[in-house]
Amino acid sequence: MCLYAVAQEDGELTPIHYAHYLTRAMGQVGLIILEATAVTPDGRITKNDLGLWNDAQTTKLRDLVTDLHQLGTKVGVQLNHAGRKAVDAVTPVAPSEQRYSPDYRQPHALTIAEIHGIVADFRSAAKRATAAGVDVIDIHGAHGYLIDQFLSPVVNQRHDPYGGSLRDRYRLLHEIVTAIREEFSGSLWTRLSLTDYQTSTQQNSLSEWQRVAQWLEADGVDLLDASTGGLFPLKPNFPVHDGYQTKFATKLKHAVDIPVSTVGLLDNPGLCEYVLQNHQADLILEGRALLRNPNWVATADLALHDHHLKRDTFNQSYYRGMNER
Ligand SMILES: Cc1cc2nc3c(=O)[nH]c(=O)nc-3n(C[C@H](O)[C@H](O)[C@H](O)COP(=O)(O)O)c2cc1C
Predict the structure, then answer these.
(1) Nearest CA owner, ligand 1 atom 12
(2) Positive or negative: CA dihedral 107, 110, 114, 117
(3) Exposed, middle or buried: residue 277 (CB in 10 Å: 0-12, 13-18, 19+)?
(4) What's the CA gap between 196 and 146, in Å, rounded?
(5) Which residues are CB-neighbours of 126 under 8 A, at least 6 positions away?
(6) Which of 77, 117, 208, 251 has its CA 20 to 30 A from that of 12?
(7) Is the separation of the CB atoms in 139 and 79 below 8 Å?
(8) Residues contacting 312, CB < 8 A, separation 6+
(9) Pocket of ligand 1 (CB under 6 A)
(10) Nearest C-alpha to atom 13 of ligand 1 is from which residue?
């Protein structure tokens, strides 16, 4: 969850990030995936984002990962390039020269040499993530950022090996996955947006996303992280309800053997259990629930396990705070 808290604009972790993530680890979150972290300065969504392109950023990440591991939490980093949605970029880039909305600048259409440079940026960030000791890299292929822009039949209007057919639109992601897989032996995830809230002819169909999922599995991805939206300034075209994105995770599960995670309005512990027990998804990710309540895991534990917190795993003072009046 982007905190947009890098006031110095240097892409380095700040005390706010340490406080935020360590508090969630104290709250017994099993795996924390750090917010979208840019592989290059112009790949940041805003200039207040985290980055992973230099040594100072890598050292601070290693320190945070070490502390989080000491608290028993696994750590992931989400690697991103924002493409045409990089609001503060010197030169926003994209597959083609279409802007995201009239409020955004027109992006520069990447040359093939520049695309190779971005793949190299992802490779280099993966090396840095390895040096920092992270357990998971989550490639941000969703929410209308650069990889999602390439995958789209609407935003990607290229007539070269990186555009045209679905397989060619997938080429950038394929090269990024391959490069990261060569540098990183931990768990490699990819987040995808499985609908753009457009009519069916203006976006990849679910069967096309299932093919992308199968290619990702073949390329060595360990988990698919199913999300939606972000390519256009459009909201869901159906009433948003608890677990509204889980049906997309279930669709992917039908196509692959690797686990698929779900996210989106899943802060009701009973509903989470229902989704898991009915094999609608293999893993649940919590976003806003953990912004609201760093002790959400304890809340879920209380709700699901006979209203009895596991005293031995939870910090003793937090335990008393949750249980005593
Ligand atoms: C403040 C905020 C920051 C977010 N930052 C990210 C991000 O860095 N990477 C990402 O993939 N999704 C990001 N999202 C989307 C969430 O990860 C999540 O998919 C979405 O909020 C729905 O899940 P939830 O109902 O559990 O919050 C962000 C959402 C919010 C509200």
Answers:
(1) 1
(2) positive
(3) exposed
(4) 14
(5) 79, 137, 179, 180, 183, 184
(6) 117
(7) yes
(8) none
(9) 1-2, 35-36, 78, 140, 142-143, 191, 227, 263-266, 286-289
(10) 1
The SS3 call for residue 108 is strand
Identify the structural domains of the chain with CATH numbers, from first to last.
15-294 (3.20.20.70)
CA of 34 to the centre of ligand 1 (A): 11
Q: Which atom of ligand 1 is nearest to the CA of 78?
A: 9
Supply 270's token pair.
């009973």
Q: Are 41 and 53 in contact (CB under 8 A)?
A: yes
Q: How many CA atoms lie within 13 A of 190 on its CB side?
A: 29
3 state DSSP class of 144: coil
- Centre of ligand 1 from the C-alpha of residue 316, in Å: 30
**Beta carbons of 281 and 250 less than 8 angstroms apart:** yes
* Residue 250 alpha carbon to ligand 1 centre in Å: 20
pLDDT in tens, 179-221: 999 999 999 999 999 999 987 788 999 999 999 999 999 999 9
Residue pLDDT, tens place only, 17-46: 999 999 999 998 999 999 999 999 999 999
298 Cβ contact partners less than 8 Å away, ≥ 6 residues apart: 27, 28, 309, 314, 318, 322
Give me ligand 1 centre to Cα 287, in Å.
Answer: 5
CA of 288, closest atom in ligand 1: 27
Pocket test for ligand 1, best of 52, 137, 267, 288 (most atoms within 8 A of CB): 288
CA 86 to CA 170: how far, in whole Å?
Answer: 21
Residue bearing the CA closest to ligand 1, atom 21: 287
